[in-house]
Amino acid sequence: MALDEVVADTRAGRSQVLVLRGEAGVGKSALLEYLAENAAGCRVLRAVGVESEMELPFAGLHQLCAPLLGQLDRLPDPQHEALSVAFGLRAGGAPDRFLVGLAVLSLLAEVAEERPLVCVVDDAQWLDRVSAQTLAFAARRLLAERVALVCAVRTSEPAAGGDPWRGLREITVQGLRDDDAGALLDSLVPGRLDARVRDPIVAETHGNPLALLELTRGLNSGGAGRRVRSAGRAAAGEPDRAELPAADRGAPGRGAAAAPGGGRRAGG
Ligand SMILES: Nc1ncnc2c1ncn2[C@@H]1O[C@H](COP(=O)(O)OP(=O)(O)OP(=O)(O)O)[C@@H](O)[C@H]1O
Ligand SMILES: [Mg+2]
């Protein structure tokens, strides 16, 4: 899988940049979790775009770099000063964005000298604009620094004023393949669904795991999940059981979730 290669290549001294794009609920965050969990031996830095912080310049970058603030003095003076001003550690007017970009690049490269570095940015569509631009600037200049930058961007949220991530290597995250979506659905409802019920649901949701989870969520409260199951029984000519114990249900994501991305539809 591309994500496994990202870590392997980073460890081998080939910097990697990957933008995961996909609709809400398709599994981008789950893939980032998988990446972070499988980055043994690497230092992992994280940031998550927050809608309410979109107007705060450098907020996202500050999140990502917070654990590295003690190392700013490893930077050349002009970069040190620019990043210190950006992060409010030093007084000054609006910092030179080019210098801030260089500072971030230098900082990541410096830190990666000790251990390969994996930067994971979720909900990047909600990063403040200058943080996204700065990270993309650094990403375009990564070469042999043992640094990976992997971002998740929700496709349904078009970036105002142009897409800062354009031009970087990207993958479109698609829904689960039909058999994996079916297995997930089966793990969410008691017993086994009739194919005449399961298949249209899989087709309708395009294997979007969140859609599958939400469809079955009302199982115990008599919502959609119960309807799914009831419809399954009806289609199979079986009597409907009013209440089914929660303990019968598989844990969400068992099977298909064991290897996120492993069972996905072909990505672009
Ligand atoms: N391969 C999988 N198998 C089972 N469940 C999964 C899988 N991938 C994701 N999920 C589950 O589907 C739900 C949505 O996944 P996730 O949060 O990763 O989506 P997302 O693409 O990050 O969505 P958003 O754009 O809203 O952030 C979560 O509950 C997650 O645990
Ligand atoms: Mg997410």
TrEMBL record:
A cellular component term, taken from the record's GO annotations: cytoplasm
Entry keyword Hydrolase: no
Q: Which domain of life is it from?
A: Bacteria
Q: Where is the Orc1-like AAA ATPase domain positioned along the sequence?
A: 3-146
Q: Where is this region: Disordered?
A: 221-268
Q: Which Gene3D superfamilies match?
A: P-loop containing nucleotide triphosphate hydrolases
Q: Where is the composition biased (Low complexity)?
A: 245-259
Q: Name one Pfam family in it.
A: AAA_16
Key word ATP-binding present: yes
Q: Name one GO molecular function term.
A: adenylate cyclase activity
Task: Name the UniProt key words of this record, in alphabetical order.
Answer: ATP-binding, Nucleotide-binding
Record-linked PANTHER family: TESTICULAR SOLUBLE ADENYLYL CYCLASE, TRANSCRIPTIONAL ACTIVATOR DOMAIN
What name has this protein been given in UniProt? LuxR family transcriptional regulator fused with ATPase domain
Task: Write down the species.
Answer: Streptomyces laurentii
